[in-house]
Design goal:
By secondary structure, the chain is α/β, with parallel strands linked by helices. 39% of the residues lie in helices and 18% in strands. The two termini are 16 Å apart. The structure holds adenosine-5'-diphosphate (ADP) and magnesium ion (MG).
Amino acid sequence: MRPDILNPLFAEISALKGVGPALARPLERLGLARAVDVAFHLPISWVDRKLTDTLDMADAGRIIGIVLTPVEYKASGGTRAPFRVHATDSQGNYVSLIFFGRNSGWPRKLLPIGEPRFVSGKLDLYGQDLQIVHPDHVLPTDEAKDIPEREPVYGLSEGLTNNRMRELAAQALQRAPELPEWIEPSVLAHRDWPGWHEALARAHKDPADATAKARLAYDEIFAGQLALMLVRASSRKRRGMPVQGDGRLRSLLKLPFAPTGAQRRSIGEIEGDMVQATPMLRLLQGDVGSGKTLVALMALLNAVEAGAQGAMLAPTEILARQHFATLQKMLAGLPVNIAILTGREKGKAREATLMGLADGSIHILVGTHAIFQEAVQYRNLALAVIDEQHRFGVAQRMMLTAKAELTPHLLVMTATPIPRTLTLTYYGEMEVSRLDEMPPGRQPIETRVLSASRLDEVVEALGRHIATGGQAYWVCPLVEESENSDQAAAEARAESLRMRFGDAIGLVHGRMKGPEKDMVMDAFASNRTKVLVATTVIEVGVDVPNATLMIIEGADRFGLAQLHQLRGRVGRGDKPSVCLLLRGGALGETSRARLALMRETNDGFRIAEEDLRLRGAGELLGTRQSGEAQFRLANPEQIATLIDLARDDARLLIDRDGGLDSGRGQAARTCLYLFERDAAVGLLRSG
Ligand code: ADP
Ligand code: MG
């Protein structure tokens, strides 16, 4: 249970003053649902305000703070015309303060004629006239001292102003308690880091305060490392089921190809783990198309041959069904029973599956999270495979819910190639197998970057492509605001393509109900529809070899890892493939470099390394950057520089106080709760 001291911070966001439904929505779009989320929503940059007495054309383009005296109102033209307040500085120089779309009562009240006011805002030059459009502060002169020279700038969404965000942050800060120190004192002293509360306050007040921000980042990294070590320690203490198959099922497999060297090596490593009494904790890293499924199947059969069961967890319904179909096909003719379980299996079928798992007649289960729910009892589950899971959370939870006396071996598979420097960050002390060799005979994917203004040409090319029997994916842009608008964008695109191509167009998005989604996927997989318009739900795993054209709209808005994943949907058959990345008009340098990299290479590991480097150079992390969501405070640069320290600190703490019972241990528990590693704390108790 989270300690009481953190409760005010973990209150719903509506507990903050001034947050009603209207404000809750833009906040939610930023992922801010609780006070703690606001507290961790640190400013992303700042503006330095020049405090001055006199207006100066040379300051155009800067934020200034100045005392002005309103001399005249100008409510020109119709209701849509801006309301202007002419004002002068102490020398009699003029500036217009401009207010759009407001009723004039408000600026009149704010700026009474003849009364000096402190005004802050961006000074612009319009022709020869100076103006300030929508001043960000207008205050009585004696309150001017409240306005800092350096003002934090927050990430915002529509309907939310920076002022409001700052106010909310102040409230969230008030809810943040002083916390006992969890960082090793020598580390703290050496780095000159402030305590947690002070660090948080400083990071909000002055976004340039690298020391305060480093401490906060460190806390988050430390919590992550500590959690991973607790999982590891707890798994070491657990007993697993040593299994060693005799190969009788695997020898019956009729594979149309020989395993690659990397596949063979990984399978060997996994077998080596599974024969141990300590549960395996292994990560299988392999780029899209590197053949992870075969490795998983071999591991599963290894368990089944030894008389045990295996389970495979997929992140989405679509993927679970696809894995099920793939495995079923590969297992055809073998005496192996395989079943599927997702939220959609109901009634009798579900009952039968549950029975079969309990009595052991089902050997392999494929499914979504449902497969680790309470009601699911296995007779002797020896291996759990988690596919395409970037986050460790599931594994943790699974270990908690492992009701079996014996903890299953765990194989986590990820197609997100993670830079070596970050592997430890994300996967702690898991053993790692890498599929660093692609199956032979892969056709290259040619990637082109095009401006979205050439959409007509793209549609023409799509027409030619399907006229010659090809299939294609069309991925719609991420729309910032919400899932709903992603869906709307996809629907609109499907609609416009249908005008041209009619029934050849399928549409799939995350909001669709399961059966409907299956129908769409089926139609595409069996070549009845030619183009699949989709949101990113098709990101992982989907396998239709005949699809050789991938079109990604708004490509500059995706993370590189995600683009790489999406691109990996093509290039799966024996024909060469093309990926068209449509980009927006005005791109920053980093965005250009990122897209150029996609064009240049198809090597996921290299893309991951470069992405880290480019983003480390200052590009803002997209909130949906897949796999990155684990960190809210720490940026890749901080992770790279602090990870070793955090790992050593965490290890030292655990060596001294494995139960986290000492004063510092208790403080570290609080840190774990602060970063919502509750599951890891739970492991302490369940031993
Ligand atoms: P991943 O899950 O790693 O993205 P898959 O397991 O889906 O990749 O494999 C991609 C494709 O490669 C599948 O069609 C699979 O049958 C094929 N494949 C796997 N291993 C080999 C191999 N050793 N030789 C040739 N083709 C292979
Ligand atoms: Mg896969």
